[in-house]
Every structure is written in C-alpha cells, then in structure tokens.
Design a protein that fits this description.
GO terms for molecular function: protein dimerization activity. InterPro entries: HLH_DNA-bd_sf (IPR036638), Spo0E-like (IPR018540), Spo0E-like_sf (IPR037208). This is Aspartyl-phosphate phosphatase Spo0E family protein. With 58 residues, the chain is mainly alpha-helical. It has one domain (1-43). It has helices at residues 2-23, 28-57. It starts with a helix and ends with a helix.
Length: 58
Amino acid sequence: MVNLLLKQMEQTREMMIRSGVENGLQNAKTIQLSRRLDQLMNTYYRQMAFEEEKDQED
C-alpha cells in the first residue's frame, strides 16, 4: 500500500505542477490537485505512523 501511495503522490504532484504552469496557481484544477496531494500525503503519513507503531509492539 505504501508503494502505491508514493506512486500516486508523485503522479499527482507532477500533474499539479503541470497544471500550475499551464493554467496558473489559482486555477481550480491546480487547487483540486493540490488538495488531492495533501490527502494522499496525510494518508501516507498515517500509514507510516501505524506501521511504525506496529513494529514497536513486536
């Protein structure tokens, strides 16, 4: 799951940058991609914290 999240984060980041260059930073699509990237990052960090906590229990 972590590898999938990393791939999704990278793809979304690339699309966001491309949208920002082509459409501007205040464009609705750019903002939507930025929010999606934030969501993916939050999910990734929660997953990493969960796995770290699980490893400490072992």
